[in-house]
Design goal:
Elements: E1 7-11, H1 15-27, E2 31-35, H2 38-48, E3 52-56, H3 64-72, E4 79-83, H4 88-96, E5 101-104, H5 109-124, E6 133-136, E7 141-144, E8 149-152, E9 155-156, H6 161-172, E10 178-179, H7 180-188, H8 198-210, E11 220-223, E12 227-230
Parallel strand pairs: 1-2, 1-3, 3-4, 4-5
Antiparallel strand pairs: 6-7, 7-8, 8-9, 10-12, 11-12
Length: about 240
């Protein structure tokens, strides 16, 4: 099978997880290098010059946080963090030290492959997903994915963590129509315990915070028979 020339550095100390993720990535034609501890990861990073890093946080010798910070001193390549830490502060800290995305364990390898592809596409377009503030309609809506802040008319919309995850998922894939199941897998992770219809409740609350008229939305659009998509035109 022909490789797509995108090189992925996969770092995790659990062989079963590494083998599963590597198989999925290679099946999608990525070139995968693997490391099982922090020292090996940093050595391989310099040797391989990967296009993207998939990085577990809890590693022997050097932690994932330290690796992320070291990489960020010399590179802006996309980094996806894998973590068993599900507290909001842990996730926010991961973004603040330079992660572009994160997945909480357990997660779907298929979801990881989707996120890898999305980050690489945006990186190739010269857009670092989490180092820019995006805005729509003369800053009617502003989303800062690095600081995890959403503003409506310049005022903090005070989104809940789940509302922010939904909105950030939708804007990362503009014009794509998502089923409720896809939104659960990508926004909340494979281990999410909620039902598909809880998405509707989150969407309703999100619209109340960012739409001028929640009954006639221009950002969070309903796709009849499918689910939802983001309808805003970026500036």
């Amino acid at each position: 099978m022909k490789a797509n020339n995108h090189k992925i550095l996969l770092v995790d100390d659990e062989p079963k997880i590494v083998n599963a993720i590597k198989a999925y990535l290679e099946n999608s034609n990525y070139i995968v290098s693997t490391a099982f501890d922090g020292e090996q990861a940093l050595k391989l990073f310099d040797e391989v010059s990967p296009d993207l890093v998939v990085l577990d946080l809890m590693l022997p010798k050097i932690t994932g946080e330290e690796i992320c910070q070291t990489i960020r001193k010399k590179s802006r390549i996309p980094i996806i963090m894998l973590t068993a830490k599900i507290q909001e502060n842990d996730i926010i800290n991961g973004f603040n030290i330079g992660a572009d995305d994160y997945l909480t364990k357990p997660f779907s390898p298929r979801e990881l492959v989707v996120r890898v592809g999305s980050l690489l596409r945006r990186s190739s377009e010269g857009v670092s997903p989490l180092f820019n503030v995006m805005s729509w309609n003369n800053k009617d809506l502003e989303v800062d994915l690095n600081e995890i802040v959403v503003k409506k008319n310049g005022i903090d919309a005070k989104l809940t963590p789940n509302e922010f995850k939904l909105l950030s998922t939708l804007i990362k894939y503009p014009k794509k129509s998502f089923t409720r199941e896809e939104l659960i897998e990508i926004a909340f992770g494979y281990g999410y315990d909620g039902y598909e219809r809880t998405i509707d409740s989150h969407i309703k609350n999100l619209r109340n915070k960012i739409e001028d008229d929640s009954a006639s939305p221009k950002y969070i659009m309903t796709v009849r028979g499918i689910g939802y998509k983001f309808g805003g035109e970026g500036e």
